[in-house]
Amino acid sequence: MPELILHELRDTFRGVPFPVALLRIVSAVILAGLIGAEREWRRKPAGLRTHMLVSLAACLYVIVGRELVASDFVGHPDGQMRVDPIHLIEAVTAGVAFLVAGIVITTGGRVMNVTTGASLWLAGAIGLACGAGQIPLAALTTAVVLLVMMGLASIVQRDD
Question: Which residues of 82-104 are buried (b: 16+ CB within 10 A; e: fewer)?
Answer without folding.
Answer: ebeeeebbeebeeebeebbeebb
